[in-house]
Amino acid sequence: MATATEGFGEPDRATALMPGQAPTELADYVAARASTLDDVAAAAMLVDMARRDVPGLEPELRAWIAVCLALRTPRDGHTCADFSRADYWAGDIYLAAADRLDWPRSAAAWTAALASAGPLVGRPGDRAPFILDGTRRYLARARHEEQQIARRLGDRSGGPVSILLGGPGTGKTTRVATRLIEIVQDRPEARIALAAPTGKAAARMAEALRARRHDETAPPEVRNAPQHVRDAVMAVRPLTIHKLLGNRPQGTPRYRFNATDRLDCDLVVIDEASMMSSSLMHHLLAALGDTTQLLLVGDPNQLASVDAGSVLGDIARAAAQAGTPLADRTETLTIRHRFGPRIGALADAILAGDDHGIARTFEILEGRWTPPPDPRNTKPDDPGSIRWIDPGKASLAGRVGEVADHARRVRDLAAGRRAA
Fold first, then answer.
1. Most buried by CB count within 10 Å: which residue of 3, 65, 304, 361?
2. In what order do the strands lie in the sheet with 330-333?
């Protein structure tokens, strides 16, 4: 694999592979890993199409770069390129090349250059491949999907959507099990769908719900529910969201269930919602009936989105603002039931990400911190739950061996389950 230095050392090769319609200067940006040849080729095709309507169209070099960045954003897990954060977008650039490239740090310089892109770039409400909204540049489809998500989730008169947030061990699965039992008891005919973004997440959801059925510490509503009610809940098999929607990769429309052919469900529960991309959330919301209840469950600080967008993280930030529609629909669980205060405090310190959080992280890891009483944690303190291992000591090799043995056991168990 070529290193960043080797990549920048091959501008001549990049120039030789550049599409004929693209400025040769873009070869330096490709060699510096700010873009790819595929991005440049797609940009050249779009510019060529625009020239049919605007003969002689010649976008500035910065406009070409901006188009390539917008094409790159989905690969980076984003739905737009925010030019007010130009330094962030330069993060992957080979640093020795930075001073040799035209890379403005001001959003105004980028947005001014986009005026030379003609019909390729529009403002909100325009029909164009790319939309410039303030300092953010979107692929038009990505912006449309974000708008539809915001409309559905932010409309107080919209469909019944609720959000359940919480870290590991805070009781999200128990809360979901309680909700399902209540619904089945009140409405035995209720049509319920359970889903998650991936097959593995869907399988974990099923296992967690089965475990709650036999959990002696579960709430009375779960433990004492009639057997036929618990059986009815367990009969609902979690699916992937793609399977729930009827994914048709080669079909039109892509999903069998969509805005014109809605899902026939009274309640849809989505677990591990942090893994959902903006596009998948858009298609799910479009497929819900007007009276279908949607419960989104997840930890915005945990699993990352599979594709572009961080919908649950955006929801959590909006819900933190008192008085907003999402604040009224969001419940955040904070009491930890699964692990002791040291692990919880370590997680909080890492998530804080500031100087105090870093200092607290090392205090906990090195055993220099004693947990104060924490009403958010129901587990007793275990000083041995976290141990600092010096990489230079022989004890590290022993720990590596333990991890390897555990991994082999997990692999063998998984192989046995598949064989069964």
1. 65
2. 239-240, 192-196, 267-270, 293-298, 161-166, 330-333
